[in-house]
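Extended Data, record Penicillin acylase family protein
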Amino acid sequence: MKKLVFILIILFFVVVAGFQVVKYRFSPKYSGTIELEGMTSDTEVYFDDYGVPHIFASNPEDAYRAMGYVHAQDRLFQMEMMRRVGTGTLAELLGEDLLDVDKFFRTLGIPKHAKWSAEEWEKSGPSDIQSAVNAYIQGVNDFIEKGNLPLEYTLLGHQPRPYSIEDMHGIVGYMSFTFAMAMKTDPLVTKIARDLGQEYLEVLSVHTLPEHHVIPNQYPERGEDQKISLDQSSLQAMLAKLPVPLLEGSNAWVIGPDRTASGEVLFLNDTHIGFSQPSVWYEAHIEYPDFSYYGNHLAGLPFGLVGHTRHHSMGLTMFENDDQDFFEERLASDNPLQTIYGDELRPIEVREEKIPVKGMDPVSFEVKTSIHGPIMNEVLPEIGEITTKPVASWWVYVLEPTKALEATWKMARSKNIQEFEDAIRLIHAPGLNVMYGDKSGNIAWWATAKLPIRPEHVNSKLFLDGSNPEDEPLGWMPFEENPMSINPPSGFVASANNQPDTLSNGTFFPGYYYPGERWNRIAKTISSRKDWNQNNIKDLQLEAINESHPQVVRSMIEASDLDVIDQHREAMSQLAAWDGNHELESISPTIYYKWLYHTLHGMMADELGEEWFDKFLETFLYIRSVPNLIQTENSPWWDNVSTSEKEGRREIISRALEKTLEELTSQLGDDSNKWHWEKVVVLEHPHPLGAQKPLDRLFNVKAPAVKANEESVNKLAFKLNPAGVYHVKSGPAMRIILDFANVEASESVLPTGQSGNLFSPWYSDQAEMFANGEYRLQLMNESLIKSGAKKKLVFEGR
């Protein structure tokens, strides 16, 4: 017995020692000194309680070199994933399973565009921006050369190649693609139009409906130079393989001085992005002479896309504008490499792409490009179910080199609202709602993008006729006509991925907009009082109420058979009285979402088929169309085309309710009072390697149940499904609140933690805070940072 105890003790110490060796081998270095050849002066980096680096340097080059190093040591593998998506090289690292993803991105043209943007960047000549970007790249490569590479590289047997400006532009391209709603939606809309007819489309919200909430415009007065004159008062399956998150939506609002307790601007932003580990944003605070900035950074990019100085704050939501059209080409009868265009023939260009694949020889494939763009048939299988003709993607982003780096550099350094607007004009795609507030009391929202002018007859959600020159875009709108609101009389600006109001020509710009429930809740709540502060605004940012769901529920109850309702009268009474809140103890959302799924499935799966119905649930059409779909009595969707009898609304809804209550009883028990929402909600932040068991237990981050919902302000989205277990896929990637009365007391939180390194103390330390609706400070006070820092790292030149 003594011998066994002795052996167990020895094994314990061996395991502990082994873990410490592994931890030492792969952990980031947060303390001590690192010598970097070429640094002009010592640069200090202080890490606060949550691992946020606070960089104090004497010049921008040293600051951004240090930034590149610390960013890489916390997020290098995330950078690796994102640059490989943007350069079409995932299969080289992860194997043959990712080959179709690489083919898709190469066909779409993002790697080609990244190379073009990098070439144009190099031609632009030396500048302060280039010096800072090059310093950041050097910092990343310093870490690759000298630092402890994260465990993922050892598990994959890979050594990272040096980071480059082309990689950086590839990451910008990934970000620009990530919304991808045209890819998901336009084939579906075209299929319904061709296979089922216009009467089926009319019940869907393909375009904005009168009951949807729009963002009001408030155009500023401008001088002759256009300056602001201010009054100072299966794509689905392929995308599932992506090892990086997709941008989903977002909320942002800025409250003017007349509506705040402090009499200064109050700024809020929470970007909605697919949950992952690490989460998408990396916070960093940079100080050097004449520059002080706290920002949220994408992996691999030196400049924060969201952030603030002591003078102004900037935030983002997705504009959701339609910047991608699909043209169905007509091939010449005697030449498959020519298309008919009016009375002319136009060539199809062919280029060969070679994709490196782990453990295999490179795979070659051809990309064909018409005058409208790349032919997508091979990488979008859905097209083959609609047409046998080649279909080309016309996408604004790839039409000109990106200037995202220049824009974000200038946005952070703007001295006033006019300089800020000059900076955002550089963003041609993706479409962004850019939010602004400043110490002078100005508030603003711009929908920034290069907006094409389409002919009046064109429906941009349907495949267009590539042989008809009259379907072509006519030109570009002047930036001054983009949707915007500068210091509106309402005293606030807000965006929540919903439709901007009509343009100066009286039309809505087409897009993939959400119906506006989030925007409406934000607008109504802000308008209700004039004493907003950093604390009382939190209830709104954390709110999980959707006011349209109870309306849908009541219409479904009214259409249901009373016998089914009587069998579960108590549960149905609670559902009938539901206010749309998604509290964890509530049973109403548990019933509603399963009932909604079975109702929609009973309506639509017979016409669309299972695969296309599943695709429908992935589009903005689903969110926008539910109230109209459910409440329209004479909709053609109600009849099941696979049966001889003609079904109606009452029959489909009642059957769906009966099935729902039977399944919930089997799933959660006979006592409907215990069908709590928290029992069917799951939140786990997946790491790219977590798809491979048992690595999920090592790398994924599990979190407590959250108030999962569709289109509440605190949007925590999931996919509707028949199983009735809802895996939260996306939500706020941070929650920022800033009052210009005290910028140094601004707050935020991340979904998991600052670091993507498994052995960092800041890998998942914010996961419970986030789930519980807690916040922590975004420190900018130098004395508090230095006196309270957990770790200090010094970069020395030599």
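Summary. Residues 548-581+587-675 form one domain.
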